[in-house]
Specification:
The radius of gyration is 19 Å and the shape is elongated. It has 301 residues and is of the alpha/beta class. 36% of the residues lie in helices and 14% in strands. It has a six-stranded parallel beta sheet with strand order 3-2-1-7-8-9, with helices on both faces.
Length: 301
């Protein structure tokens, strides 16, 4: 079965608002759990999946089933991902990430769950982040289970594909670059350095299950939180939507900051349709929480 990649509402959802007061009020009370999606990283130059100009309008992400079953698919994936990593790995946290980190430093958050694989929350200074879908900066062998840094794989791929430098049409939220089959050419994939097995980025592909223990940890965070604040996620896939549903069933308020309607809107007390960086910086100002500017963050990174 193919994974859910898109969602169209079959009901009339409440419209978005520009009123940030409910968000400021809930955050001011503390104990808030953040659930972030690709929309929080767009201001860092990483596009989202489903917003205006999102990557799904031109690109179908690699699925776990295709990656594991087809050597040709793995070759295409690693060629595109290797090129994309050169840009993806240089992305820096934006104002939204820095605001979330500031809320955490001031004791307003109970935790952060991110659906993103870019590590930008941690780079901004957030602690205890749960990477629901894994991290692109780590690689795992599907045969022996050995982990290795992505930078080491990048070095090996550079050596095996000297001169590989096609121009990508775009970079996607999963670090995958848009390349034609002609641009992929005869790209060489390298095996696990430990056992010679198949290497995969330590991320949850579309069509792959999130590890059960990770899901349960997130559920514990949802149960312990005073409220759930969703930032930049369409909540199309169940891996994130289930936590919104669980929070709503438990009677915890759900607030969403996302410019477009989401699959979780009917469970939310409000959806703020504003750009994340500006919205969260405004909320921080109202709460008297200082947010590092870009220059300060660069000096501490």
């Amino acid at each position: 079965m193919r994974p859910t990649l898109s969602w169209t509402s079959t009901e009339e959802l409440p419209p978005g608002t520009t009123d940030l007061e409910p968000v400021a009020e809930v955050l001011g009370g503390g104990g808030v759990l953040v659930l972030s999606g690709a929309g929080i990283s767009t201001e860092s130059g990483i596009p989202d999946y489903r917003g205006e100009g999102g990557s799904l309008s031109r690109h179908t992400p690699m699925t776990y089933q295709d990656f594991t079953a087809d050597a040709g698919a793995r070759c295409r994936y690693w060629a595109r991902s290797h090129l994309g990593w050169r840009t993806f790995g240089r992305a820096r946290p934006n104002a939204g990430h820095r605001a979330v980190a500031a809320f955490g430093r001031h004791g307003l958050l109970s935790g952060v769950i991110t659906q993103n694989v870019d590590g930008l929350h941690q780079a901004a200074g957030s602690e205890g982040v749960v990477d629901l879908h894994g991290r692109l900066d780590r690689v795992v062998c599907l045969s022996c289970g050995a982990f290795s840094p992505r930078r080491e794989l990048a070095r090996r791929l550079e050596e095996a594909n000297e001169g590989f430098a096609p121009v990508a049409a775009a970079i996607n939220p999963d670090g995958d670059a848009d390349l034609t089959d002609e641009q992929v050419g005869d790209f060489r994939v390298v095996p696990c350095a430990v056992c010679g097995g198949v290497l995969k980025p330590d991320v949850v592909f579309f069509g792959e299950a999130v590890p059960p223990q990770r899901v349960e940890h997130c559920r514990e965070l949802v149960r312990a939180a005073s409220a759930l604040l969703v930032l930049g996620s369409s909540l199309t896939v169940m891996s994130g939507l289930r936590f919104v549903r669980e929070a709503a069933r438990a009677g915890s308020p759900v607030l969403i900051v996302n410019r477009d309607p989401t699959r979780g809107d009917r469970h939310a007390v409000t959806r703020v349709a504003l750009p994340l960086g500006a919205a969260l910086t405004t909320v921080a100002g109202r709460l008297g929480v200082p947010v590092e500017d870009d220059a300060e963050a660069a000096g501490t990174g």
